[in-house]
Amino acid sequence: MISPLRPQFLPGTSVPYPFCNQGGVTSLRTGTGVMSSVEKYSSGLRSDRCWHWKNATHCWCKDCQRSSSPSNVWWEIVVETAAHVVYNDTEASHTSLRLFYDTDKSLVVTLDTVTALFVNVERDTCALNCATCNKDLGDQLEKVKKTFFNHLSDVYIKYRKSRDENKLAIIVSHPHGCPKQVSIGHWLKKHLDNNKEYLKFTYTASTCPGSSGAIVYCVGYGSWWRYHLIHSGTKGREENYSGMSSVSI
Asked: Which top-level group of life is the source organism from (predicted)?
């Protein structure tokens, strides 16, 4: 569902905010996201011995919410996307996330218990929180996270010094809600905000509707999940742009 609270214009412009005139509409929309965190909880205690940030002691997935004996072991998954894809908690509650959608033959694996952790319209970024008590899925996502972060760090270290020479930009997205596609191009410009805290990139890597919220990796920039660039929009046919992110300068 599209929230009626969406702003009328993109921040600081007279450009209409996406879907701003469709508040209350429940038609299907698609976007892309990137998993940035997976945490396992047991009776509210995380593996690093920290308690759940909301003092939860049981899984809150939809099955457990309906159960008289909810699981006390569960996983919480954070997915980053664009704020114009999921604007607030109302929209998050109507959102489902399909995982491992690599080909037309991929098994349908979804997370459908979703809340909005964080939304910043100015930077066009949103963090979604999901829950599952499916052990096989939770274990698999933990392995995927570890592998991804290790590779991300390795690539950052290898290409950091040459990043402004090669200017390679890579986008992994689901255009038109279809299976995963990888687009390769070059970044064109980087824009530092007035506080010199966040960067925004423009790039040539191809996108389509449904690519919004995808990770944009400008090779050699950012070595940790919170420094992801998120695809935000397009300027004509040749130039795309990200949201603002605190990637390493």
From this structure: Eukaryota
